[in-house]
Amino acid sequence: MHEAEDFQPRSVVHDGMPASGTDAGVLLHQVDGLLRVPLEVTPFGMPRRWRRPPAVHLARGEWLCWQINYRFTRWCGGEWTYRLDTLNIVHGPARPDLFLGTPTRHVDELASLR
Asked: Which residues neighbour 37 within 8 Å (Cβ) at sequence distance 6 or greater?
């Protein structure tokens, strides 16, 4: 959300595996019937995350909510912006209200942004 857009939420929905070469922020792989989900973080956001959670493996019908936040500082003036990413991934078909419930797996990478 951006102040210039009256803080209107934005979301992107993808069906199927992300195309290679896209900036999806996540690399999805199927391994032995499980969906392997490792989140790729931006190298430009703060704080640096030296220890990260391992990839999550989802069985068919399970879904994951992964949250991570960043602070980006401008080169001139020291102003900074905040970014919160919430990634919801389901392995297999999903009903429209699925993400309104409780996820099978939840990864919280929310950090204190001083």
From this structure: 26, 28, 55, 56, 57, 58, 64, 66, 89
Calculate the alpha carbon distances from 42 to 14, 24, 30, 71 in Å. 20, 11, 23, 11
Quick: pLDDT tens for 67-111. 998 888 877 777 888 888 888 999 988 888 888 999 999 999 998
pTM of the model: 0.75
| Residue count (the chain) | 114
- The domain ranges of the chain are 15-109
Q: Exposed/middle/buried for 111, CB within 10 Å: 0-12, 13-18, 19+?
A: middle
Q: What residues have CB less than 8 Å from 66, skipping those under 6 apart?
A: 37, 39, 56, 86, 87, 89, 106, 107, 109
Strands 63-73, 56-58: pairing is unpaired
